[in-house]
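Workshop exercise sheet. Pairs work together: one partner reads the sequence aloud, the other fills in the structure field after running the prediction. Swap roles for the next sheet.
Pair: D.N. / O.F.
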Amino acid sequence: MRPFRIAVPQATLDDLHRRLDNTRWPAELPGVGWDRGVPLEYLKELADYWRTGYNWRDAEARLNQHPQFVTEIDGTDVHFLHVRSPEPDALPLVITHGWPSSVAEYLDVIGPLSDPRRHGGDPARAFHLVIPSLPGFGFSGPTREPGWSIDRIAAAWGELMRRLGYDRYAAHGGDLGVWVSLALAAMQPEYVAGAHVTFLLTPPSGDPTAMATLDDRDLGRVNQMARFVQNRSGYMHIQGTRPQTLSYGLTDSPVGQLAWITEKFFEWTGAVKSPEDSVARDQLLTNISIYWLTGTAGSSAQLYYEMADMLPLAPTPPPAAPPHPVPLGVAAYAHDACLPVRRIAEPNFPNIVQWSEFDRGGHFPALEEPDLFVQDLRSFAAALDR
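Structure field:
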């Protein structure tokens, strides 16, 4: 394992600023707002702030406050933060981000999770934190070969935790990190004490008898997922079928990258007028900057191609997985892109030890509602002890 420190060359930042200065802007139909994508006026203003107001060096310094490492696993580099708690009996926890996110999503919760005594929490609910960048994402850099599937990433995480000396730990995931965390727990239940997720797809089985057991709220969530697949899954189609073609535009145009990610922070949160309703502007730009500065827009999209048969867009849904072997915690945040249905989840997850419903927050709760996120993980750890 090699100690790692982020140090983006100044020439790379200068190139970003030059490209932002020379953006070729498209036309826009009047009065369409966010219905057809990110509004032109908003994106121009955000790009100008990225160019003149945002300071990457501040974000870089904040990330570098935490111990970081790179290690090679199964032929690819894996970058990760490793923050050990001062509490010797802390529960090790591997946290996996998704797309379009990064390890920066968790900066606000590292302190409270690893050192609750210092943040007004119960020291018995402390965590040793391992926060990797997914292969092909951010500082893990582009993968060198195809085949980096969810199962392969999960196996790599198991190896990472073994190398760190953790033989019993919990897993948390959001977005794509949900698939990774659940796969890791299914592969290595003897090591994974429990899995906690903040996003869970629960498509209906198609069995009319099962559908008849759903109440109005559950049916509303089923319909919400159907609307998501029909109207808001274009990114998934493109990344799941033509990631290489997409990569040329996102790797060459910072404004293209900015729009591609900003749209999701608007649609998948409680935002009303702009993503900053839910996520601070500098936090949003730190996340986007990581993709841009590492040139990993295309390589991160490759994961969608590798897992296309697992996505709700697949022409033939995958067969039902066997019942999940470890305790599960689910947190549903009101403004997420899709909300889970417990009755649909229970056959595959018979050991749900915690199911939390929150009336605020969305797809990126560690950014939007860090206090709720921390509270829910702490209570999940307590549920594992029961």
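Discussion prompt: The chain has 16 helices and nine strands. What would you look at next?
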